[in-house]
Description:
- By secondary structure, the protein is α+β, with helices and mostly antiparallel strands.
- It has a domain at about 15-25 and about 60-135: Hotdog Thioesterase (Thiol Ester Dehydrase, Chain A, Roll).
- It has 4 helices and 5 strands.
- Strands 1-3-4-5-2 form a 5-stranded antiparallel sheet, with helices on one face.
Amino acid sequence: xxxxxxxxxxxxxxxxxxxxxxxxxxxxxxxxxxxxxxxxxxxxxxxxxxxxxxxxxxxxxxxxxxxxxxxxxxxxxxxxxxxxxxxxxxxxxxxxxxxxxxxxxxxxxxxxxxxxxxxxxxxxxxxxxxxxxxxxxxxxxxxx
Length: 144
């Protein structure tokens, strides 16, 4: 039996967790195929050269997905229900950038929801996504 993540009672304001991944060209092409987002800014170098970024960039939703990884596997962890997310995309993510997604518990509500600050930074410490997530923590299984 898998263990569950932190319950509402266990989680504390200020708790934090992170996940780091290098975003590769393969990741971008797989995400494009799965999502159907074939925007040339992501998959066509010649067209991307004409954009303000001058090269292909990763999908914002791909990078934001790293936040989901932290929520679902680390904090609160296994059994978490992701309810809402706001995301401000503040800088592009280029192929082979190493991104760290970090979540920090900001608030616990009366309705037993947890609000977390979310941020993704690149290998240079530059913020590429900043926002806020709302989750339901895992619950202990009922015992008979």
